[in-house]
Amino acid sequence: MGAALLNARVGMAAVHHACSVDRFPDPTRPDLAAVLRPAPGAADPKLTALDPVISLRRSNRAEFVGAAPVEVTDRLGEVAATEGAHLLRLSGPQSQTLARVTAAARAVQDCDPGYGGELDAWTSQPARERDRVHVQPEWTSRTGTGEVPLRDFTPGHLPGPSAADPGGRSESLLVLATAGDGRLDWLRAGEALERVLPRSYVSVGRPA
């Protein structure tokens, strides 16, 4: 939802309108995440610049060619900060800790009987609808590589990292975080994520 809100802000900027955003403006309507209105003044040129890139953004689950340069991730951290979030580049020990936490969280998630049905509802094998995640067979082969496995879309399958695979040493692991853990933080995290991903396309010249 936060990503959709950022895209709406970009759309406003693309037609040269500044905008104001009221996030969770009505306590009696908790499902109303934000109200976006045109506002006086000039559009944010940094948002305007993202407009032609948003439609190009794709998830990339292919092999990575190497770790991202520090100067690139530092710039992306500055982008996240404009939305009130922090983008942290993890060290090797931090990545190993996250791998353990991720594995524990996935084990808990797989114990939820509704998880498999929900997963099947928004994935498709083969592709059936354009608004779903179109799962590719080769994605599962990547889930066991690196210090932190990629997401596996197979319910009940718990991939573990492969110690023999060098992926964790040749890939950059970034964590997007906010200071709090409330609804407003979740929304702002989505806005920050959607601001970082198109900008990473510009920074590294390929889909994020």
Structure in a nutshell:
This protein has 208 residues and is of the alpha+beta class. It is built from eight helices and six strands; from the N terminus they run αββααβααββααβα.
Could you walk me through the main structural features you see in this protein, from its secondary elements to its overall organization?
Helix 1 packs across helix 8. The protein has 8 helices and 6 strands; from the N terminus they run αββααβααββααβα. It has one domain. It has 208 residues and is of the alpha+beta class. The strands form 3 sheets. A two-stranded antiparallel ribbon has the order 1-2. A two-stranded antiparallel sheet has the order 3-6.
SSE topology sketch:
Elements: H1 2-14, E1 18-23, E2 34-39, H2 45-54, H3 70-81, E3 86-89, H4 92-110, H5 113-121, E4 123-124, E5 133-134, H6 137-142, H7 167-170, E6 174-177, H8 183-204
Helix pairs in contact: 1-2, 1-8, 2-8, 3-8
Q: Sketch the major β-sheet.
A: 2 strands, antiparallel
Number of H- or I-type helical stretches: 8
Low-pLDDT stretches are 161-168
Order of helices and strands: HEEHHEHHEEHHEH
> What fraction strand?
5-15%
Overall shape: it is globular
| Rg calc | 19 Å
Through-space gap between termini: 19 Å
Major β-sheet strand ordering: 1-2
Mean pLDDT: 81
Number of strands: 6
Summed up, the domain count is 1
Structural class: alpha+beta
Query: In which range does the helix fraction lie?
Result: 40-55%
